[in-house]
Each structure stands twice: as structure tokens, then as C-alpha cells.
From TrEMBL:
Summary of the function given for this chain in its UniProt record: Part of the phosphoribosylformylglycinamidine synthase complex involved in the purines biosynthetic pathway. Catalyzes the ATP-dependent conversion of formylglycinamide ribonucleotide (FGAR) and glutamine to yield formylglycinamidine ribonucleotide (FGAM) and glutamate. The FGAM synthase complex is composed of three subunits. PurQ produces an ammonia molecule by converting glutamine to glutamate. PurL transfers the ammonia molecule to FGAR to form FGAM in an ATP-dependent manner.
Documented EC number(s): 6.3.5.3, 3.5.1.2
Predominant place of localization: cytoplasm
Family annotation (HAMAP family): PurQ
Species this chain originates from: Litorivita pollutaquae
Top-level taxonomic group: Bacteria
GO molecular function list: ATP binding; glutaminase activity; phosphoribosylformylglycinamidine synthase activity
Gene Ontology biological process terms in this record: 'de novo' IMP biosynthetic process
Subunit text: Part of the FGAM synthase complex composed of 1 PurL, 1 PurQ and 2 PurS subunits.
Active-site residue list: 86, 194, 196
This protein's name: Phosphoribosylformylglycinamidine synthase subunit PurQ
């Protein structure tokens, strides 16, 4: 598996995500926001957490218009995989690669904690390493993680089994407790929690390992 991790001014989880891919056995390329193309042979693009462009305007809005996001869109439209975490999820909604939007937390405060997530579907390359309805522990660190979409979009997400994760105890006001969603072809995942921060027991837990291993297994058999 060849993973490309995008880097924007203000990214602060790019190295964490690169290490997560590397630990799963992937080759990793770091790609700067001003680049207009991805390296040849990339299987999956990682859009990391942080504060791209200082979160000016809306979170992820400026990053979504950077040169590299044009290449990201082309990659996804061709059937490539993408994983957006935290600010990366915000970027994926701003590029319209995923529906909905991330708003200010309901409590109007930045939240840094470890939360329980329920695996809403195991039917994706990202979640196939888990059992449906399993509860895992994953860190969160966000100020604008309150997922919102209109009723029609929510009905479509639920009807097409595209809600990947939900919060066991909603920390930010996200509609229907949504913590992560999938694209129509199930090859793009956006999620607010940080699975790349749940890889080593010394960091608290290893519940994120299964996601990256599942991705590697999928790419190996593709």
C-alpha cells in the first residue's frame, strides 16, 4: 500500500498519520499543499488533523481550495481511497467529497478526551477489522466537530449504511451521534476522532490498530 499524507500550513497530525500508515506496512509519501499532483501509484490519501491555514473562514475551507486538493478530488473520482481525520474530515466536507458540515461544538468549547465509539458498520475497508456494534476507545481533540446534515442526507447515509462510527456519549452535539461517515462507494472515510492516536499501549490503547491493518489487507487483495 502506498499512502500519501497531505500537509497544509497548520497541520499538526501529519506525522502521526504517516507513522500509523508506516506501522501497518505502507510506503508513505508526504505531500505539500502547493503540489498539484500526487506521487505515482498512491492507493490512499490521508488528510490529517490540525488547523489548516489557521482555520480561517471555516475549518478546512481554504485547504479545500489548495492545489493538492484538486489532485485529491481526481484521485477519489477515479476510485481511490481517502481517509480524513478531524480537520481532514472538515476538508473532505468542504471539497464536497463527503456530505454535510462540521460546526462549532454544542458546548462552544474545545474538547480533548478519549471517547467511546460504536462501530456502526463493518462493511468498508476502514472498518472491516471491527465487529459491527463493537465499542472502541478513540481520542478526540476538536473545537468544530459537531456534524450536521439535512434530513434527506441523513436518511440517505442511514439507508445506505454509510455511517461508520457513532458516539456512545455524544461530546459535541453531532446530529444522530455521528462520528464518521463513508462516501457512496465506501472508499472515503471522514471521522472526527483520531485512530492514529490509538496505536500503542503506552499511549493509552490500541483500538485504532485494526483500522490501519484492515486497510493494508484490503490493498493487498485489491
Amino acid at each position: 500500500m502506498h499512502a500519501a499524507v497531505l500537509v497544509f500550513p497548520g497541520s499538526n497530525c501529519d506525522r502521526d498519520l504517516a507513522v500509523a500508515f508506516e506501522k501497518s506496512g505502507a510506503k508513505v509519501s508526504m505531500v505539500w499543499h502547493k503540489d498539484a499532483a500526487l506521487p505515482a501509484g498512491v492507493d490512499i490519501v490521508g488528510v490529517p488533523g490540525g488547523f489548516s491555514y489557521g482555520d480561517y473562514l471555516r475549518c478546512g475551507a481554504i485547504a479545500a481550495n489548495s492545489p493538492i486538493c484538486g489532485a485529491l478530488k481526481t484521485h477519489v473520482e477515479r476510485g481511490g481511497y481517502a481517509l480524513g481525520i478531524c480537520n481532514g474530515f472538515q476538508v473532505l466536507t468542504e471539497t464536497h467529497l463527503l456530505p454535510g458540515a462540521l460546526r462549532r461544538n454544542a458546548g462552544i468549547k474545545y474538547i480533548c478526551d478519549t471517547v467511546e465509539l460504536q462501530v456502526a458498520t463493518a462493511d468498508s475497508a476502514f472498518t472491516s477489522g471491527y465487529t459491527k456494534d463493537a465499542v472502541i476507545n478513540v481520542p478526540i481533540a476538536h473545537h468544530d466537530g459537531n456534524y450536521f446534515a439535512d434530513d434527506e442526507t441523513l436518511a440517505r447515509l442511514e439507508g445506505e449504511d454509510r455511517i461508520a462510527f457513532t458516539y456512545a456519549k455524544n461530546p459535541n452535539g453531532s446530529v444522530r451521534d455521528i462520528a464518521g461517515i463513508l462516501s457512496e462507494n465506501r472508499r472515503v472515510l471522514g471521522m472526527m476522532p483520531h485512530p492514529e492516536r490509538a496505536l500503542e499501549a503506552t499511549h493509552g490503547n490500541t483500538d485504532g490498530v485494526a483500522m490501519f491493518r484492515a486497510l493494508m489487507d484490503t490493498m493487498a487483495t485489491a
